[in-house]
Design brief:
By secondary structure, the chain is mainly beta. The chain is about 5% helix and about 50% strand.
Length: about 450
């Protein structure tokens, strides 16, 4: 049986602020606690050098949207006051960090620096969410390197062992979050809905049943309830994935993982030897500047090669039946079939050879006991073959502080040949999914 599924998705979004970016807001006051209006607030991304500048209103408030995730410094200044700087602001996807600053009277050339971490509790929203940061994604062990398994780090998230309809024999991941059905979850990659192709709107993934590309993931956030109106296509969890970007520092990785049957035990149904198994996962990633502070790139590739001997037990014609002889159901004695059809005998070689015991059945004659059925067991290990290639490319362009452009593209291409009980038959699937996004941010005025 052959099944071919092709799914493609190339989309662009205009506004996806809370999905792939973060926000900083706060208030600027003087030493007495009075609001300082008209103060300049500059927020600098320490990874790319990009700087966003806004001005406080008459109440001293400011708010900066569409900031990239990562480390930032916040600086505020106004004539007649010493500049104030807050460092150590690490933004996560969808987060709104509150950074209040205090200006002291003095020369503008003087500067007061305060180091602090971003508060763990977001007091600006009622959303219930759980962030899986870059460190957890890279350091926690994952069988198959499928990063969606980390969704279960969040309270109320359960991973079911579920046979993915697109992968036939590969185990895919299906999640229930806060008691919702798996079909109600929504996955977003860089702000674009990410259905993948293997599970058809359940959980993204390819023919291997894994969600590859862990080295391309910066972090992801799992919203479990009371999220804003920009979400809500589905009532379950909203999983927002942000991919890596290039920075002013070159960075990359090369990896190879091997798993095989060298130390496996023999299965009860294996005849004489352990079923062969070999899985290779390999790849590389690289990112860095094309032009410092202006143009950046990031790319990632992961290959998945899987060869597994599946322990099968089949019921096949015994050696007598292959010669056109069947047992008498009363006595068990074999006799030639009257007027056999030659074309039927031609199908016998298509069945695997019996290598197990004959199958006995009760005789129709009373007191005879068990007699041969004309069938026997065949133990075999047909090979499952999975090949999958996953790639991500992302480019960022910052022509000036008021503009930024980000383009990303992801492809997941693979094939899966999974045998059935008869090793001469099987399911062959090819899957290919595309996800693309373009995001442009323009600041019309620092007061907007």
């Amino acid at each position: 049986m052959t099944r071919r599924i092709f799914s493609g998705l190339v989309m662009a979004v205009v506004v996806a602020h809370a999905q792939v970016t973060a926000t900083i807001s706060g208030k600027v006051e003087d030493a007495s606690g009075a609001a300082v209006g008209g103060a300049i607030v500059a927020i600098k991304n320490l990874e790319t050098g990009a700087t966003r500048t806004v001005m406080t209103d008459d109440m001293g408030n400011y708010r900066v949207l569409s900031l990239a995730v990562g480390s930032h410094d916040v600086r505020t200044e106004k004539p007649g006051f010493r500049a104030a700087v807050r460092t150590g602001i690490n933004l996560a996807v969808g987060q709104e960090a509150v950074v209040n600053l205090k200006l002291d009277v003095g020369e503008l050339a003087q500067e007061v620096t305060v180091s602090s971490e971003t508060p763990l509790v977001d007091t600006t929203t009622a959303s219930v969410a759980g962030l899986v940061a870059e460190r957890e994604i890279k350091d926690l062990p994952l069988n198959g390197r499928s990063f969606d398994n980390l969704i279960t780090l969040n309270p109320g998230a359960i991973n079911y062992t579920y046979k993915s309809p697109g992968t036939v024999t590969s185990q895919g991941n299906t999640f229930s979050v806060a008691g919702r059905r798996p079909l109600e979850n929504l996955f977003l990659m860089n702000g674009v809905e990410y259905t993948g192709s293997s599970q058809l709107s359940i959980t993204p993934g390819g023919v291997s049943g894994n969600l590859l590309g862990i080295d391309a993931v910066r972090e992801f956030n799992v919203l479990t309830g009371t999220y804003s109106a920009e979400y809500g296509k589905r009532a379950g969890a909203q999983v927002t994935v942000v991919t890596q970007s290039g920075t002013n520092q070159f960075h990359g990785s090369v990896f190879e993982f091997l798993r095989n049957s060298a130390l496996d035990a023999r299965n009860f149904f294996d005849q004489g030897a352990v079923a062969p198994f070999r899985r290779n996962q390999f790849g590389a990633s690289a990112g860095g500047p094309v032009k410092k502070d202006r143009v950046f790139f990031f790319g990632n590739y992961e290959g998945f090669r899987h060869r597994l001997g599946i322990s099968n037990v089949s019921v096949v014609p015994d050696q007598e039946a292959r010669q056109g002889r069947l047992p008498n159901p009363s006595t068990g004695a074999y006799a030639p079939v009257a007027n056999p059809r030659p074309e039927m005998l031609n199908f016998m070689p298509l069945w695997p050879q019996p290598n197990g015991p004959d199958i006995m059945v009760p005789a129709t004659a009373p007191g005879t006991g068990l007699v041969p059925s004309g069938t026997a067991y065949s133990y075999n290990t047909p090979k499952q073959s999975i090949n999958e290639n996953f790639g991500t490319a992302k480019g960022d362009y910052i022509p000036r502080d008021q503009d930024s452009l980000s383009i990303s593209y992801t492809i997941d291409d693979g094939n899966n040949l999974s045998p059935l009980a008869d090793p001469l038959f099987g399911n062959y699937i090819t899957l290919r999914s595309h996800v693309g996004s373009i995001r442009e941010t323009h600041i019309f005025s620092p007061r907007v």
